Automatic annotation (TrEMBL):
<dbReference type="InterPro" id="IPR001347">
    <property type="entry name" value="SIS_dom"/>
</dbReference>
<keyword id="KW-0808">Transferase</keyword>
<dbReference type="GO" id="GO:0006487">
    <property type="term" value="P:protein N-linked glycosylation"/>
</dbReference>
<keyword id="KW-0032">Aminotransferase</keyword>
<dbReference type="InterPro" id="IPR035490">
    <property type="entry name" value="GlmS/FrlB_SIS"/>
</dbReference>
<dbReference type="InterPro" id="IPR029055">
    <property type="entry name" value="Ntn_hydrolases_N"/>
</dbReference>
<dbReference type="GO" id="GO:0097367">
    <property type="term" value="F:carbohydrate derivative binding"/>
</dbReference>
<feature type="domain" description="SIS">
    <location>
        <begin position="288"/>
        <end position="430"/>
    </location>
</feature>
<dbReference type="GO" id="GO:0006002">
    <property type="term" value="P:fructose 6-phosphate metabolic process"/>
</dbReference>
<dbReference type="InterPro" id="IPR035466">
    <property type="entry name" value="GlmS/AgaS_SIS"/>
</dbReference>
<dbReference type="InterPro" id="IPR005855">
    <property type="entry name" value="GFAT"/>
</dbReference>
<dbReference type="GO" id="GO:0004360">
    <property type="term" value="F:glutamine-fructose-6-phosphate transaminase (isomerizing) activity"/>
</dbReference>
<dbReference type="Pfam" id="PF01380">
    <property type="entry name" value="SIS"/>
</dbReference>
<feature type="domain" description="SIS">
    <location>
        <begin position="114"/>
        <end position="254"/>
    </location>
</feature>
<dbReference type="GO" id="GO:0006047">
    <property type="term" value="P:UDP-N-acetylglucosamine metabolic process"/>
</dbReference>
<keyword id="KW-0677">Repeat</keyword>
<protein>
    <submittedName>
        <fullName>Glutamine--fructose-6-phosphate transaminase (Isomerizing)</fullName>
        <ecNumber>2.6.1.16</ecNumber>
    </submittedName>
</protein>
Length: 440
């Protein structure tokens, strides 16, 4: 027996070793270690760590030893604490403006490098799972609007079966994962790399598997996210995609330098707008949530770049409130979903003042005519949509169409959070879910 020795091994699922003073720690995720140390070693897949109180040895399963690579995580321990909030999820929603500001400071060197690779891609595919897939979908709109770059978003678990052998050396895959350890996304990365495609990565965790498998990667600066439901990691992914899209547009001439500078200035204003949205939404939703807590089904509807926002709003509601919700493009209503609508089936519309506004008004009217209660997230001063809706949250104007998902998702996060609390759920620990999905 060796009571002062721990042996641990990594096979696919993440494993992190924390280096403390006269102590060592093991965990599956970095935030769990922050109360004890900010110095960590991330094991690679197939490695074994032999740990004593003051020593760490890392070996491969074949017995080859390597020097541990120490990472210092610049996340203050208090970020992994509730800090007076009733739940981590609410704290992390409120932290979004700061997380956005930090993410806007991502190194331009890496953004420009990634943008040049994206611009030269024959085929560009964005892939992720869950909320990260919704970020990918929003990214396809951003790249189209800002850089005139066509792309497609694929759910990671579906990527191999969708693409088959059609992917190759001319393809670029941009993989997004908040943890950098999502099993389906890592499997998709390995699949495309085996066929000669280059991989770019966006993650929130330095040293994660996605950073080692990507040719180039950037880390969002959301800080630790403890709540299972992604909030600030989603909006910082969107900020990163907006930055990449603007840089790609500048490189390929879709944006002039003047247009680029103007958009970057507007993007810098997003965190300030987010602060206002959080304040207004929290106050407005208090009464709204009580009225909607009796319903068992919801549709979340949007058009254009608001479709990913609708999907994300529905996902947030179902995963933490256990209330059935579906998100889909509003134009599809008449092709089947409208058959379910009556006075017991409310609809949430994401309706910014963009190119789709006139059409979304028609969708609101057709749902209202069938008895649905309408809750809309709209631009400030949109009296027509306000009059057609039973309840509204108003958003600041002057936001470029491509950037609207960053702000318009926040009221939906708060709606899901407050409804979860109203129903007596624990939004931080939804049943059957885990923060980092490391199984396939």
């Amino acid at each position: 027996m060796e009571p002062d020795k721990i042996v641990c091994a990594r096979k696919e699922s993440p494993l992190v070793i924390g280096i403390g003073e006269n102590a060592m720690f093991c965990a599956s995720d970095i935030p769990a270690l922050l109360p004890f140390t900010n110095k960590v070693v991330v094991l690679h897949d197939g490695e074994i760590a032999v740990i004593t109180r003051n020593d760490l040895r890392v070996k491969s399963v074949e017995g080859y030893e390597r020097a541990p690579e120490f990472l210092v995580i610049n996340w203050p321990p208090e970020l992994a604490e509730k800090g007076g909030y009733p739940h981590f999820m609410l704290k992390e929603i409120v932290e979004q403006p700061l997380a956005m500001r930090n993410t806007l400071r991502i190194s331009e060197t890496y953004l420009k490098l990634m943008a040049s690779i994206i611009d030269n891609a024959d085929h560009l595919i964005l892939t992720g799972s869950g909320t990260s897939y919704h970020a990918c979908l929003a990214g396809t709109y951003m790249l189209s609007y800002l850089a005139k770059k066509p792309s497609r978003a694929l759910i990671s678990s579906e990527l191999p079966d969708t693409l088959g052998d059609s992917i190759g050396e001319g393809s670029i895959v941009l993989a997004i994962s908040q943890s950098g350890e999502t099993a389906d996304t890592l499997s998709a990365i390995r699949y495309v790399k085996e066929r000669g495609s280059k991989v770019l990565g966006i993650t929130n965790v330095i040293g994660s598997s996605i950073t080692r498998l990507s040719e180039v990667y950037v880390c969002t600066q959301a800080g630790p996210e403890i709540g299972v439901a992604a909030t600030k990691t989603f909006t910082t992914q969107l900020i990163t995609l907006a930055l990449l899209s603007c840089h790609t547009g500048l490189i390929n001439g879709s944006l002039t330098r003047s247009e680029f500078n103007h958009l970057m200035g507007l993007l810098e204003e997003i965190p300030r707008h987010a602060e206002q949205v959080i304040e207004v939404s929290q106050k407005s939703l208090a009464g709204i949530v009580k009225r909607y807590s009796k319903y068992s089904n919801f549709y979340f509807l949007g058009r254009g770049v608001s479709v990913p926002t609708a999907l994300e709003g529905a996902l947030k509601l179902k995963e933490i409130s256990y209330v059935h919700a579906e998100g889909y493009p509003a134009g599809e209503s008449k092709h089947g979903p409208i058959a379910l609508i009556d006075d017991s089936f409310p609809c949430v519309f994401i309706a910014p003042p963009d190119r789709t506004r006139s059409k979304i008004i028609g969708n609101v009217m057709e749902m209202k005519a069938r008895g649905s209660k309408i809750f809309s997230v709209i631009g400030d001063g949109d009296e027509e949509l306000k009059s057609l809706s039973d309840d509204v949250i108003t958003m600041p104007n002057g936001i470029p169409e491509a950037f609207t998902p960053i702000l318009y998702v926040i009221p939906l996060q708060l709606f899901a959070y407050q409804l979860s609390v109203e129903l007596g759920r624990d939004p931080d620990k939804p049943r059957n879910l885990a923060k980092s999905v490391t199984v396939m």
